[in-house]
Design the sequence.
């Protein structure tokens, strides 16, 4: 009997010890995904006039990773990669979701398949409370029969660019804070996708905030006030974590879905209207910069896919560090978050990405062994107004990046370790490397489906 009681006692102690360990090491996760926020559009990245004190605070209290790329130069494919850990071309999502005839013409589905492997579903099964606040764009508000976000594994959401009611564009953090408090009161870890609107057009600028930048030209004034508004809301979220005393057990990441948008040099400053978010200033007020990276939104050069990535987890991720070498991709986020959340992924799931927990903890690798691939529509020859927006395919392996046009008749090669700004084409002097990367790309392309499959088509489609 004594041995039996002792055995039970030790088992209970072990269980309590494990539970305590899990509670301390399983972090809350808040992933802030901005929309068209350029790499250079931060105070901590040296912007000449933008004020981003709260994002700068994340960099001061966390690590600023300079070699993070998203899976596309435009919105919907980038978000697909975050949700699935797969390259978006596996779902025929090569561009943004638009109205049904446009999706059909481009051989795209009308929404992301709810049966795909999904990050919020994996985390929810592991005990997380899950929520999404802000932009969706894995369907569209013009597709009324698209699935609601609850079908993707979210316990709660408020969104726009989705079916159903559209959340007011600035209510993202206002919605997230009560969810955090409710989850914390239940002693459950939470995962929140906070996909903010800024600085996508239309610019829903607050006139009061414009007064903070009186000496700027009108377009720059609108842009600065718009981004400052987003930064203020991020500050409210950080303050709420502090007030709840859970900052030390919360991983907060700030990033962007692609590089900054740019209109033509003479684009007028005029009002425009978005069916999901309402009226605001149009592309004439887009003044985002890339920190010297080539091209802008819509391109597969680094200006289109190289975006901010700042991670803070006090006591776990180094504070005040700049990491210029760890090669990270949006397809890495699912395996990374799932490892941190103690998620046992199904054996049938094959991620295109890899866990970046070592990189977050300061042990990254500048030579990535697992290739990264891109595919999107791009004109050839390039338009004179956008000379770097011609790349239809790209592959990164180790230090090399190979880019090709749509018929693969032209290729350029860049050494991203020595030349992260893609200033020198090394294809002629490294023909063997070009050939090797082309073989990798062709093998990947041959694995992609010819057309979308599954329950991903609206009833509005015409056969």
Sequence:
């Amino acid at each position: 009997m004594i041995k039996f009681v002792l055995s039970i006692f030790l088992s209970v102690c072990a269980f309590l010890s494990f539970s305590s360990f899990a509670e301390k090491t399983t972090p809350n996760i808040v992933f802030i995904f901005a929309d068209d926020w350029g790499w250079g559009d931060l105070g901590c990245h040296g912007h000449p006039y933008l004020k981003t004190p709260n994002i700068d605070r994340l960099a001061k209290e966390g690590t600023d990773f300079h070699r993070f790329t998203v899976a596309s130069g435009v919105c919907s494919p980038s978000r697909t990669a975050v949700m699935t850990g797969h390259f978006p071309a596996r779902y025929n999502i090569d561009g943004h979701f638009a109205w049904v005839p446009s999706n059909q013409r481009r051989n795209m589905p009308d929404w992301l398949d709810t049966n795909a492997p999904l990050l919020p579903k994996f985390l929810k099964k592991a005990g997380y409370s899950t929520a999404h606040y802000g932009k969706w764009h894995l369907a569209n508000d013009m597709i009324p029969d698209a699935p609601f976000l609850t079908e993707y594994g979210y316990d709660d959401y408020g969104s726009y660019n989705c079916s159903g009611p559209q959340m007011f564009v600035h209510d993202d953090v206002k919605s997230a804070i009560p969810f955090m408090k409710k989850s914390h009161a239940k002693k459950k870890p939470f995962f929140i996708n906070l996909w903010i609107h800024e600085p996508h057009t239309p610019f829903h600028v607050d006139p009061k905030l414009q007064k903070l930048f009186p000496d700027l030209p009108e377009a720059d004034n609108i842009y600065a006030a718009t981004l400052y508004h987003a930064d203020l809301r991020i500050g409210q979220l950080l303050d709420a974590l502090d007030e709840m005393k859970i900052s030390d057990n919360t991983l907060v990441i700030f990033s962007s879905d692609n590089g900054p948008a740019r209109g033509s040099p003479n684009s007028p400053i005029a009002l425009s209207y978005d069916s999901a978010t309402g009226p605001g200033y149009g592309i004439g007020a887009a003044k985002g910069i890339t920190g010297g990276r080539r091209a802008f939104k819509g391109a597969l050069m680094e200006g289109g896919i190289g975006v901010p990535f700042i991670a803070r987890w006090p006591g776990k991720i180094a504070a005040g560090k700049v990491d210029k070498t760890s090669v990270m991709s949006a397809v890495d986020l699912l395996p990374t978050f799932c490892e941190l959340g103690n998620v046992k992924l199904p054996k049938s799931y094959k991620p295109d990405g890899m866990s970046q927990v070592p990189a977050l903890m300061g042990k990254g690798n500048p030579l990535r062994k697992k290739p990264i691939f891109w595919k999107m529509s791009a004109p050839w020859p390039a338009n004179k107004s956008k000379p770097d927006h011609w790349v239809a395919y790209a592959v990164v392996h180790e230090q090399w990046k190979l880019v090709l046009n749509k018929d693969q008749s032209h290729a350029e090669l860049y050494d991203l370790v020595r030349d992260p700004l893609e200033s020198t084409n090394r294809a002629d002097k490294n023909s063997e490397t070009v050939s090797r990367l082309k073989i990798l790309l062709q093998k990947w392309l041959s694995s992609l489906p010819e057309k979308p499959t599954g329950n991903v088509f609206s009833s509005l489609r015409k056969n």
